[in-house]
What does this fold into?
Amino acid sequence: QVQLVESGGGLVQAGGSLRLSCAASGRTFSSCAMGWFRGAPGKEREFVAAIWYSGIYYSDSMKGRFTISRDNAKNTVSLEMNSLKPEDTAVYYCAITTSSINFNWSSARRKTEYDYWGQGIQVTVST
It folds into this structure.
């Protein structure tokens, strides 16, 4: 059974940094594209970043502040978040897709592209 477990969230002041990690188990993840999404209260879950052999993709609003990386040997994907703003406050979710052959800039942004999701972790950025 595939499981994704996020860690590293919490409370940080505006301008600060956090590093989220997602530990995956249950299958070989080197063959899966991996991504991060976030959901704020009252808002639709939105794309943050994704990583695959085809490339690394970011939402425009996070490009330059967030960095996604993966360690296939450890089955983990991480999200380094810098220069955090109060509007970055949200629950952050990692996700994987097992159908990665055509993974690209467009598909990376679609929630429906992903087969498995973590339970999410809260990130709160205070003013």
Observations:
- The two ends are 40 Å apart (CA to CA).
- Helices lie at 105-108.
- Residues 105-108 form the longest helix (4 residues).
